[in-house]
Design goal:
- The chain is mainly β.
- The protein folds into 2 domains: 209 residues, Cathepsin D, subunit A, domain 1 (Beta Barrel), CATH 2.40.70.10; 150 residues, Cathepsin D, subunit A, domain 1 (Beta Barrel).
- The chain is 5% helix and 38% strand.
- It has 3 helices and 30 strands.
- It has a 6-stranded mixed beta barrel with strand order 7-8-13-9-12-11.
- It starts with a strand and ends in an 8-residue tail after the last strand.
Length: 401
Amino acid sequence: MILLLIQLFSLCLVVWSSSSVPRRIARGILPPAGAAKVDVRYSPGFVPDVPSNDRRGVKKRRVLGPSYRTDTAPEPLTFYNERYVIPIDIGDQTFHLALDTGSQDIWVLSSALPASETSGRTVYVPSNSAVDTNRRWHISYADGSFANGVVYNDTIAVGNFVIEKQGVYSANFINGTLLNYPVDGLIGMSLATKESSGDTSVLSNLQSHGLQSSVFTCALVRPNERDVQGFCTFGYVYGTSPVAYADVIIDPVDNPNNFWMFPSTTAKIGSTVIQRPKNKAIADTGTYLIEVDDALLKEIYGSVNGKQDSTGFWMYPQNASFPSITLPVGGFDITLNPGDIDHGPAAKYPGYNYGTIQSRGSFGADIFGDIWLNNVYAVFDATPGRPRFGVIPRAYGKPVT
C-alpha cells in the first residue's frame, strides 16, 4: 500500500468511554490527504515477504487453551501493508493486530461494520466469553477520521498467556483513513497500567498473570530480509547476546503518557558527534519513521546537500551517499543501516528521494519508529519501579542470536 505524505506532524489521539474524561495521547504521524506519493515499505525493486493482499507467512494459532501455554516458541511478527502484526486470540477468533508500543488500548473491527469496510479482514463477533460493559469508546485522529463502538470484556491470548476480562474495544463505526486500515485492529503495549476506558492494560494483565521478568521483546524485520523471520517473545529474551539497557524515564512531568522513553543525548553523523543535552526518545512500533528535532535534521541532510520540499519534508539527491548516522539508547550507540534512510522518490522533485528521518514537530522527544527498530532486537522490561528499554544491535539480513 502506498501511503500519502505531505508533511509530518505529531498525531494526537483522543480516546474516551462514556464514563471517563477525554484523554489526549501524543502519537506518531498521520499524513493528510493530497500529498506526494511515497512508498513507505521498501525501496523500488524490493518485494516484500508478504504481499499486501496475502496473509501467507502469518502463522495461524490455535484458539484459547489453558491459563498458561507451554508452547514457548517466539510468536511471529510479520510485516505487511506497512504494519508489523502479531496473531492474538480474542474469544474463539484469531486476529492479526498491529503491535503498538506507543499506546495502551486494544481495539478490533466489529461485525457491525458494513462488509464493504472490512473486506479481507477479520471482524470481531462477541462470543460466549464476551461481556458488554455498556460503555462506549471513541478515537479521533488529526485528519478528521475517527472510530467508535462498544467496550467489551473478553478473554484474550497473548503469547503463552490467557487473560480473562480484558477490555477490548469493538469498532462499530469507522471513517476516513481508517476505512483503509490494513489490519484487523491494534494492540497497545505502552507502560500505561490502564486502558483509556479505565480497564487494566494488556501489559499490566500479563504481569499479573506471571509474565517472567516483566519482559517482552520484538525483532522487526525489514520486508526484503527474505531469510530472516520477525518475532515477539513474552517472558524471556531470545538468544544469548548481551542486552544494552537504558532506564525508562518515569517522571510524570517528562513522560505523562507512559511511553517507552529513555535518554538519547547525542547523535553522530560520520565522525562528528552532536551533543543534545537532555534529549529524550521513545521506542514506538506504531510509528514507521524516525522523527527528531529540526536542528539535527539540518545537520543530517546538510551532510549530503539535502533540502526541504515546499511542505517541509526533507529529501536528498538520489546520487548522494550519507555518512553513517548513529542514534543512541542511553549511552549505547545504534548506527543505522544505510539502506534504511531511503524513503523513495520525491515525485515532484526529479533526482531527489525522501528520507526516513523527519521532523518530530513540537513533540518533546524523538520518536524511534520501525526504521530505527529494524536495526535492533528490542527488549521491553516493565519491572515495576524500574522499567528499562534494551537493545541488541542487529545487522541487515542477520537473525537474532
